[in-house]
Specification:
about 80 residues, about 20% helix, single chain, mainly alpha
Length: about 80
């Protein structure tokens, strides 16, 4: 098993909360993410460009309490 590698600069601020971080991919990178060997996946260990993100306000909650049943579509 390869040595555990830190997940970029943000993980140091969040390590007490969680030892993993999400990856945001362009659709063009999906095939690489799903099929490439581990060594090639480290290229995605970087912040996604802020200027390419869009924030949309919704009234739907993005989380739920442990043990509760989801209402409607959930997060992947």
């Amino acid at each position: 098993m390869p040595a555990k590698r830190p997940a970029g600069p943000v993980i140091h601020k969040l390590i007490d909360i969680h030892d993993r971080s999400p990856v945001i991919l362009d659709p063009a990178d999906w095939d690489t993410w799903l099929h490439a060997p581990l060594e090639e996946l480290y290229q995605f260990d970087r912040p996604y460009p802020a200027e390419r993100m869009v924030v949309q306000h919704t009234d739907a909650l993005w989380s739920r309490k442990k043990g509760s049943t989801p209402v409607g579509p959930g997060l992947l």
